């Protein structure tokens, strides 16, 4: 027999117990929450608040504050997310232009802002003003010539490398979780997984700062995905201020779902699209109450961003456009072709990117994240600078590709040969033959398209904040614009063909190439993420054109069908599986005819199941069991002979309960009997004080019989968010199935590596 003093002095277990622990009911890092228990605790909390509210005026006021706390959190999330998005947009605008030059009148002005304030800017040369000087003009007083070009080229690369190095260093030193898009981890967290620090204050600060740096560096990535992570960090911060959310992981996830909606709302200026994105793409549990709150958070965030007006055009996004020409039925064919291209591009990107990321994880490449970022940035800057379509920021590129060619446009893409006799309104210019500028732009766009397709594969997944929405849209917009110009020229030169005869007469404005760019952008984004409904809503909120919903729907559905033909996983699900997170996707179908007995542990030939008995084990026995195993919990049975199930005890709560009992309860020693029954067992005289642990016992654990089909078990795990499920026959315990067992079985049935599921 070992007394308590000896136990405290030796063994790893007691060292472990000496660490400070949160209260009972919390979870360890990299473990899954118990949704049923969280729901039950919320019900108890609500019942307690309601009953107390009748006792006094003060308690009634407290109940009102508790009821309104959800809306207050949403208001705060919307305000902070909108403010951060506005600051990021303004900072990116300035730092992107800083690579090419500086404003002499006020160095904090971007190129556009600098020339707005100038009195010497003419309409034809609206991008040129004496206050804005390129680096070559400032340093060597030359704006043209080879030496000026080489100096500007060199400084462009140096600024890009400086921004990228600063970003990757900040992430590596202060917040390793600030890298990547964040959406795969947000999806996993919303499904009930705990990743401590992922939504912390340091992550919020570093991700906001580094997001500005990496987007400004010119790398092929966007800020839209990371803005969802930033908004969820805001949600986590504000929910920690209210006990209703900080002490209940299930309620906290309702707040995070709404925060994700606010993130998309400010990323795209699409509040409704944000709510649908949260519902369709990231949320696991989305009750009706969360839908309303998401709507409110997205509204406040969009309103805040609109108040800041970062783009100076009274719009929420840089690439807001309005088209004046309707689309025609014959154009559905090229729209569907763009959908096919989007699906193929999505499949190619996912396969290549996952292969590269797997190589990064399994080879020495992963040990040099800073070097990788520097090399990719250098390659990007060197290749991007000579081409005007890759030199500018991706958002500006998309804006130009979406634009309709009006009479006032100075872009190369609008270099058409004008008819001198044309006397039509400005917004209804007829189709015209392409000029030399359009042909130059076409081959430059073709080169830019190939470059973007290749470089994005290597950029996404590096140890810096990196979104995928904008690069995917850029690929689709470039392909779409080229197809649009092709169809436009075909219609102009062959207007007597049967397909054009009915709707494209000479002198009419038939084809809008910008619309094709928009459809292509939607198709490519859909192919990569497999979004459908939310994607279409985001795109029409971007453009303000309800008229173009059908082309967008056709392209989005086609791209999803084509991409799904090669594999059901979108990029975010693929990265979840690559990282081994325990994510049970609602979209996955399980059609195999296996039974619970095939999956449960212990299997034949394995050691028997580790269990606790209701009244025959000592404290030392329980501590030894905890020390020798790493299970999350233990079934409690009547005795090892009968194995009739009583309940289930969580490992963490057993450790906390024994630790507290040793500190606060006199007489509890190593050979004290632990009992889970209502009444203490009969003990011989002079026995040590027994320890009652019934309060931590779950008396209604979820059970299935050994002949339950796995299809049903998988459905139960999905819909109830279980951590584990006990397998019984006639009330007798046979085994246990955990979430990890379910995921490994599904991977095995799909001919994948079951060992890739690493967490509980």
Task: Give an overview in words.
The structure is a single chain. The protein is mainly α and 760 residues long. It has 3 domains: 81-308, Clc chloride channel (Orthogonal Bundle), CATH 1.10.3080.10; 334-417 and 428-579, Orthogonal Bundle (Clc chloride channel); 596-750, CBS-domain (Roll). Helices cover 56% and strands 6% of the residues. The strands form 4 sheets. The protein has a 4-stranded mixed beta sheet with strand order 3-5-6-9. It starts with a helix and ends in an 11-residue tail after the last helix. Mean pLDDT is 85; it is low at 1-22 and 423-427. Its main location: membrane. Residues 600-664, 697-755 form the CBS domain. It comes from Ardeotis kori.
Label this structure with key terms.
four-stranded mixed beta sheet, mainly alpha, 30 helices, 760 residues, three-stranded mixed beta sheet, 56% helix, 3 domains, Clc chloride channel
> What's the tally of helices?
30
Strand arrangement, largest sheet?
Answer: 3-5-6-9
Sheet-strand content, in percent, reads 5-15%
Radius of gyration: 31 Å
Q: N-to-C terminal Cα separation, in Å?
A: 35 Å
Round the mean pLDDT to the nearest integer and report it: 85
Number of strands: 12
Uncertain regions spanning at least 5 consecutive residues: 1-22, 423-427
Looking at CATH, the homologous superfamily of the largest domain is Clc chloride channel
GO molecular function, one term: voltage-gated chloride channel activity
Main location: membrane
Protein name: Chloride channel protein
Keywords: Antiport, ATP-binding, CBS domain, Chloride, Endosome, Ion transport, Membrane, Nucleotide-binding, Repeat, Transmembrane, Transmembrane helix, Transport
């Amino acid at each position: 027999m070992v007394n308590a003093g000896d136990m405290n002095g030796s063994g790893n277990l007691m060292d472990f117990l000496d660490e400070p622990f949160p209260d009972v009911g919390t979870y360890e890092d990299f473990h899954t929450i118990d949704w049923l228990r969280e729901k039950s605790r919320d019900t108890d909390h609500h019942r307690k608040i309601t009953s107390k509210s009748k006792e006094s005026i003060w308690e009634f006021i407290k109940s009102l504050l508790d009821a309104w706390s959800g809306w207050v959190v949403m208001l705060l999330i919307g305000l902070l997310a909108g403010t951060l998005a506005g600051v990021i947009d303004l900072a990116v605008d300035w730092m992107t232009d800083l690579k090419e030059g500086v404003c002499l009148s006020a160095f904090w002005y971007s190129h556009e802002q600098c020339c707005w304030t100038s009195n010497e800017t003419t309409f034809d040369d609206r991008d040129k003003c004496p206050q804005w000087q390129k680096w070559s003009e400032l340093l060597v007083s030359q704006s043209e010539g080879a030496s000026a070009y080489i100096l500007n080229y060199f400084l462009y690369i140096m600024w890009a490398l400086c921004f990228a190095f600063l970003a990757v260093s900040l992430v590596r030193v202060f917040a390793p979780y600030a890298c990547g898009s964040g959406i795969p981890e947000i999806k996993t967290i919303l499904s009930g997984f705990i990743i401590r620090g992922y939504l912390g204050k340091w992550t919020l600060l570093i991700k906001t700062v580094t997001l500005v740096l990496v987007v400004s560096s010119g790398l092929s990535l966007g800020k839209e995905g990371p803005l969802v992570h930033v908004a969820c960090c805001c949600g986590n911060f504000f929910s920690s201020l209210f006990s209703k959310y900080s002490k209940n992981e299930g309620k906290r996830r309702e707040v995070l779902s709404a925060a994700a909606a606010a993130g998309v709302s400010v990323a795209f200026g699409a509040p409704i699209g944000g709510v649908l994105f949260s519902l369709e793409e990231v949320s696991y549990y989305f009750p009706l109450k969360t839908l309303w709150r998401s709507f409110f958070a997205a509204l406040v965030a969009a309103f805040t961003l609109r108040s800041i007006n970062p783009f100076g055009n009274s719009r929420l996004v840089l690439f807001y456009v309005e088209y004046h020409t309707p689309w025609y039925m014959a154009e559905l064919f090229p729209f569907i072709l763009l959908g096919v291209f989007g699906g193929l591009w999505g499949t190619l990107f996912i396969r290549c990117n996952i292969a590269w990321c797997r190589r990064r994880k399994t080879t020495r490449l992963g040990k040099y994240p800073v070097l990788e970022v520097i090399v990719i940035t250098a390659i990007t800057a060197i290749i991007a600078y000579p081409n005007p379509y890759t030199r500018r920021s991706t958002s500006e590129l998309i804006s130009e590709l979406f634009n309709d060619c009006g009479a006032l446009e100075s872009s190369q893409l609008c270099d058409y040969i004008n008819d001198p006799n044309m006397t039509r309104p400005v917004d209804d210019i007829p189709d015209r033959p392409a000029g030399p500028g359009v042909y130059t732009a076409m081959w430059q766009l073709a080169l830019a398209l190939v470059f973007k397709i290749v470089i994005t594969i290597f950029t996404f997944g590096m140890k810096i904040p990196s979104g995928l929405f904008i690069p995917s849209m850029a690929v689709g917009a470039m392909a779409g614009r080229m197809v649009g110009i092709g169809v436009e020229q075909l219609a102009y030169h062959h207007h007597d063909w049967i397909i054009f005869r009915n709707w494209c007469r000479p002198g009419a404005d038939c084809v809008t190439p910008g619309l094709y760019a928009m459809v292509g952008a939607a198709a490519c984004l859909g192919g990569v993420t497999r979004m459908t409904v939310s994607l279409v809503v985001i795109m029409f909120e971007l453009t303000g054109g309800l008229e173009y919903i059908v082309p967008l729907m056709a392209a989005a559905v086609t791209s999803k069908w084509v991409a799904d033909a090669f594999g059901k996983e979108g990029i975010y699900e693929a990265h979840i599986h690559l990282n081994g997170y325990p994510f049970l996707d609602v979209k996955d179908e399980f059609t195999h005819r296996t039974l619970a007995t095939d999956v449960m542990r212990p299997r034949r030939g394995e050691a028997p199941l580790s269990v606790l008995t209701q009244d025959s084990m000592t404290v030392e026995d329980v501590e030894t069991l905890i020390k020798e195993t790493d299970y999350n919990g233990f079934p409690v049975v009547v005795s090892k002979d009968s194995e009739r199930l009583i309940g289930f005890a969580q490992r963490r709560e057993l450790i906390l309960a024994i630790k507290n009992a040793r500190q606060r309860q006199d007489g509890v020693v190593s050979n004290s009997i632990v009992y889970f029954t209502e009444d203490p067992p009969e003990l011989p005289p002079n026995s040590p004080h027994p320890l009652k642990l019934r309060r931590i016992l779950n008396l209604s654990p979820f059970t299935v019989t050994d002949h339950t089909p796995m299809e049903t078990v998988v459905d139960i795990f999905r819909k109830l968010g279980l951590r584990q499920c006990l397998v019984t026959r006639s009330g007798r315990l046979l085994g246990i199935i955990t979430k990890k067992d379910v995921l490994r079985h599904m991977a095995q049935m799909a001919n994948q590596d079951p060992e890739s599921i690493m967490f509980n």
